[in-house]
Amino acid sequence: MSEKSLSTPSPSLPLPAHSYAHGIKRKSQNPKILLGVLFLLATLFNFGPSISSLNPLKNDLGFVDDGRWEDQFDQGDLDKWSKCPGQPKALFPNSTWELSEEEKKRVVDTFSKAVQIPTESFDDNGEPNEDPRWKPFFDFQAWLEDTFPLAHTTAKIEYINTLGILATFEGSDPSLKPLLLMSHYDVVPAPPSTFDRWTHPPFSGYNDGEYIWGRGAGDDKPLLVAQWVAITNLLEKGFKPRRTIIFSHGNDEEEVFARRGQGHIAPFLEERYGKDGLLMVIDEGSGLIDDFYGAPFAIPGMGEKGYMDILISVGTAGGHSSVPPAHSGIGIMSQVVSALEDNPFPTKLTPASPLLTSLECALSHSPSLPSHYSKLLKNEGPKSFPKLANVLAKESLQRKAMVGTTTAVDVINGGVKVNALPEVVDTLINFRIDFTESINSTQTHVNKLVSHIAKRNGLTYHGFEGKKKEELGGKYISVELLGLPLEPAPRTPAEGGVWELFAGTVKAVAPGPNGEERIVTPYASTGNTDCKMYYNLTKNVYRFMGSPASASFNAHTVDEKFAIEGYFQIIKWVHAIIQNSDSYAGEE
């Protein structure tokens, strides 16, 4: 530093001598300053605890990662997941179906009619023969039978727990493990209050020549209808399966707990075929992307995050609003919510995540992968990619949701009247558990944060104890599971005969835009599907729609629609995978 910089005063920071020079003029202001300081000190002394309660929680309440996540995986698997899997050759089916214009018109009309049946499932649905909201599901079953008579007379049709649909096309060789194709026929409700916002009514199945519009047009009726259209065409051509083919359709995939449909069908099939009794399960999921950093990719879901819902309740004395405590039950619940949102789970990217595998494939095959991605993929790892995870998290909420456990506060209820303090306040919170985490580690983090809030407010804490509210006394915070949680899904293998069967069929049916090779890579979505019920039945679980990812618009919201060309692509995919699975003679 130069002498000039040492001796020259800053114009905005007067030297002490500057103050002394004006001491006489400011002398009369000193008592006011002194009184202000004394007032501030008194405020801090008397109200310090209340003010400090507004501060964030202590740093030691953040998530504790013990770094032992690797212990739950085989090191050989982690090494494989750190690389792009081998790409098999295209596997073409024995026959293809090029739909005529008349056939296209007929199958599109069938798709439209399926959307017109309002099979809405609600979180509070009663039993099938008791709750009238299930009636459209019986109508759908009847419509399906009327629309596909050949398939219905060929298959063994069973209705599991009344509304679950199971169609078994028996193969001639019982020693071969069956192929199971899944889809669900329930849809999320379309609230009447939103009807005026729809371009076309939600259950019109409107065909504008490019899209089919309506609730369920994207999720998940195009897949279900395509499955029946494809098998019908094969049967009409004289196809007689060697390997048993099973269609399994749940009726409550969109419900929070989703246990009445596939929750009954999967155990039924396990009893029939035994553990690991299926060759492969293919459910709804990801699809085709023609520009995955400059190359055509297929991104089947080959892993799923875990899932956990909890109910948090705050119990307080209540009372008249004219005599409120420092924090009402709602105020305390706001502290709970803030604690959970302000102390998130860590951002992470490891070989346990299929997202990393897809980026490794992009590194090998995509010409436009951003250079900073390439650099981080090469320089970080092999166990963890923290800098890359942070880069991804900043790109979008979608990407952020893929690099760690997410916390979503979705419902909160409390209070009944403006002049009465609430006695019980409830909130429902959803967690999507990272591939390296578990139900236990998620609960541990919740317990640590919420018990701290309880202690700070003089309330007893009951975390995941299974006690009823009447057992807890009047002043408490309790946390309980809502429904059954799910651990992160087992990873689907990306090697061996079944992988080559699946990926080879994708390459044959859906080459790149100019005929170039489509790369098939493991991927994962942020949500869960009904295939979570089938992990005991096979390790080969693929969440794959078979259509371009761009074909579906506005699932679960206003103006849901699906591209007709995308629907044709699903038919082509199902038509091929049924044939190739039937011809498959590799490892079971």
UniProtKB/TrEMBL annotation:
Pfam families: M20_dimer (PF07687), Peptidase_M20 (PF01546). One of its GO terms (molecular function) is metal ion binding. One of its GO terms (cellular component) is fungal-type vacuole lumen. InterPro entries: ArgE/DapE_CS, Bact_exopeptidase_dim_dom, Pept_M20_carboxypep, Pept_M20A, Peptidase_M20, Peptidase_M20_dimer. Zn(2+) 2 binds at residues 184, 219, 283. SUPFAM superfamilies: Bacterial exopeptidase dimerisation domain, Zn-dependent exopeptidases. Keywords: Carboxypeptidase, Hydrolase, Membrane, Metal-binding, Protease, Transmembrane, Transmembrane helix, Zinc. GO terms for biological process: proteolysis involved in protein catabolic process. CDD domains: M20_yscS. The chain crosses the membrane at residues 33-51. Residues 303-455 form the Peptidase M20 dimerisation domain. PROSITE patterns: ARGE_DAPE_CPG2_1 (PS00758). It comes from the Eukaryota. Zn(2+) 1 binds at residues 219, 254, 556. The active site is at residues 186, 253. Belongs to the peptidase M20A family. This is Gly-Xaa carboxypeptidase. It comes from Kwoniella bestiolae CBS 10118.
